Amino acid sequence: MSVRPTVLKLGGSVITDKEKKLTPNLPAIERLTKEISRANVSPLILVHGGGSFGHPVAEQYGLKEGYKDSSQIMGFSITHQAMTKLNTLIVGALINHNIPAVEVQPSSCVITKAGRIQSMEQKPLKKMLEMGFVPVLYGDTVFDSETGFDILSGDQIVSSLAINLNARRIVVGVDVNGLYTGDPKTDSGAHLIQHVTLGELKKLENRIGGSKVTDVTGGMLGKMFELKPAVEHGIQTIIVNATETNRVYKALKGEKVVGTVIER
Amino acid sequence: MSVRPTVLKLGGSVITDKEKKLTPNLPAIERLTKEISRANVSPLILVHGGGSFGHPVAEQYGLKEGYKDSSQIMGFSITHQAMTKLNTLIVGALINHNIPAVEVQPSSCVITKAGRIQSMEQKPLKKMLEMGFVPVLYGDTVFDSETGFDILSGDQIVSSLAINLNARRIVVGVDVNGLYTGDPKTDSGAHLIQHVTLGELKKLENRIGGSKVTDVTGGMLGKMFELKPAVEHGIQTIIVNATETNRVYKALKGEKVVGTVIER
User: Fold this and answer.
1) Is B221 exposed, middle or buried (0-12, 13-18, 19+ CB in 10 A)?
2) Which of A73, A84, A108 sits opposite B124 (nearest CB)?
3) Is some CB atom of chain A closer than 8 A to the CB atom of B258?
4) pLDDT of B7-29, one tens digit each?
5) Which site among B107, B113, B137, B146 would you substitute to test the A interface, given the most A Cβ atoms closer than 10 Å to its Cβ?
6) How many CB atoms lie within 10 A of CB A70?
7) B108 — contact with chain A (CB < 8 Å)?
8) Pairwise CA distance, residues B86 & A19, whole Å
9) d(Cα B242, Cα A247) in Å, to the nearest integer?
């Protein structure tokens, strides 16, 4: 890859209504697609979460704990089908805005081992980037060499791909402004951390609260756990509030924006 | 794989209305899904064609000739999106009939070289078979190491997978009764070939007509060209008319059925 790609993550809490099962946030998808189109960053990889298409369905069938009995088999198919449905909406919106999006389906090319990516076929994805396509990956049900199957979070995909492809920047769009020194909803003294190194982050970790709604793949702490290896690799990572207009746009362009920059 | 899998191909002319762009044949999909459910063959791999979701769209953007200029990039995304849409209908119908279907997206795991499969990641697919899932593949737009991209036919996938997984049987569901000694539409003396060896096939080849409608991946002759390597490998292949009730069911069960059996 001659030019280092940018990896954009759009959280499930941004592109879906996390309180309502299987409900996309179509205005947010439309706005974010326009921001991505306007930013016109290339090469670009998009990874999105499952939100209410993923977590509640996966929980219903107890997929997160791996294969236990054959009653989960149909549950896996149904959960994967839901995640694919959300992905189809995202890819469709991108194509409507003239972005040459092609999904890369994690379940078709990734094998995990006890929940961690063990192998990922990247030849088609690399060819897409080389040719100017925007590969779109997502949190997905995947097959696991140890537990049968698992839920692979978009965050783990982001970090793994960013490291493998030596990404220029990771932009993580979530439903909060970034990392806070405490929970801004309950702690009036909590303030947004604009810049943090991995060393400083370690000290802060115990004080960072989880996200609003239970997330089987982890909230903000889970996110940090997944993203840290990429930051350690030297990839600048910026967390922005993707529910606010133009934050994702500015972060993609490398402009100054409200959010948290994490650097080695 | 302890038990050898059966590979079922459903032709695009069976599951779509080939004369009407982007039009599925929902009654046929529903009936065939019931036949597959009733046959209850395991392990089973399903591969379907693109029909009117694939060929006319791919032709519109000149994808079959490979990458020539950037105007085709959006065309590739749109063609792939159409093929994905058909696949979603098939997988949905299978799930509705309690078949644990999970699609394996060729564009995510295959690279071709000048139109021939160069590499195909099969770890997820093998894990699916081992666990009792029904992997569903399809004719798809794929990336090509030489020409940029290409259309990969469901028939090439069938043959490649059947050989790699040492399939027990290939069942090919098309819109004719099987191979004829001539074109039954124009030649009143043409009759159905019930059994043919590869040696006999070679002699007949010049007399086998193409299928009704132009097919960018080849008609019956193209099908034979793709399937022959699997037959050479020792895999019994049976061509049946999937537009007729119970032919696919009987072929899956290994029962006597109207069609053409091809053996080494």
Assistant:
1) middle
2) A108
3) no
4) 999 999 999 998 999 999 999 99
5) B107
6) 10
7) yes
8) 30
9) 53
Overall residue count recorded for chain A in this entry: 264
Asked if B127 and A143 come within 8 Å (Cβ–Cβ), the reply is yes
- Token digits for A110? 């990734």
Bridge partners (DSSP) of residue B241 are B174
A220-240 average pLDDT score = 90
Question: Amino acid identity, residue B177?
Answer: N
Q: In chain A, what residues touch B152 (CB-CB under 8 Å)? A: none
Query: Which residue reads 């690399």 in tokens?
Result: A126
Looking at per-residue pLDDT, the higher value among B3 and B207 belongs to B3
pLDDT tens per residue, range B205-215: 765 544 444 44
CB environment B14-48: b (16+ within 10 A), e (fewer): bbbebeeeeebbeebbebbbebbeebebebbbbbb
Sheet arrangement for strand B169-174:
B101-103, B134-138, B44-48, B6-10, B169-174, B236-241, B260-263, B195-197
pLDDT tops 80 at residue B236: yes
Q: Which residue of A has its CA nearest to B106?
A: A108
Distance from CA of B104 to the nearest CA of A (A): 5
Phi, psi of B62 (to 5 degrees): 60, 40
**What rounded mean pLDDT belongs to chain A?**
91
Using the predicted structure, report yes or no on whether residue A153 has a pLDDT greater than 70.
yes
Residue whose entry in the numeric block shows the structure tokens 């960072």: A208
Report residue B167 as tokens. 């399939």
Tokens 């993550």 sit at which residue?
A9
